[in-house]
Amino acid sequence: MLAAAVSAALEKAIEQAAHDLRAIGQEDATPVLQYFASVVHQQMYCLMCGADPDTFQGGDPDIAYHVIRNSQNIAKHYWSADIEPYPAK
User: Fold this and answer.
1) Would you state the pLDDT for residue 79?
2) DSSP secondary structure string, 18-50?
3) Is the dihedral of CA 4, 45, 69, 34 positive or negative?
4) Judging by beta carbons within 10 Å of its beta carbon (0-12, 13-18, 19+), is residue 50 exposed, middle or buried?
5) φ, ψ of residue 22 in degrees (nearest 5)
6) Tens of pLDDT along the chain (89 residues)?
7) How far apart are CA 27 and CA 17, in angstroms?
8) Where are the domains of the chain?
9) How far apart are CA 26 and CA 51, in angstroms?
10) CA 47 to chain centre
């Protein structure tokens, strides 16, 4: 349910941005899903690491390390990325 709610919120944000851009004559300037997803990703990364999402201050570097390593492992395992994940601590 959480993933569905986030996806719905992203779609709503895209629709609102498209509406707002059309209102100022920018019909072809609708942001793509990946733009909004990257904003959510950045906010969640800060929350996972214990950092303030507005200032990026106060995060735990050990948690950040493990989150990044996990992402590297996913990219290598599922998408055959040519990457060597950080070594395990």
Assistant:
1) 97
2) HHHHHHTT-TT-PPPHHHHHHHHHHHHHHHHHT
3) positive
4) exposed
5) -60, -35
6) 999 999 999 999 999 999 999 999 998 888 899 999 999 999 999 999 999 999 999 999 999 999 999 999 999 999 999 999 989 87
7) 11
8) 1-30, 32-89
9) 35
10) 12
Amino acid at 10: L
Residue type, 7: S
What is the C-alpha to C-alpha distance for residues 82 and 69, in angstroms, rounded to an integer?
14
Euclidean distance between CA atoms 77 and 67, whole angstroms: 15
Cα of first residue to Cα of last residue in the chain, in angstroms, is 34
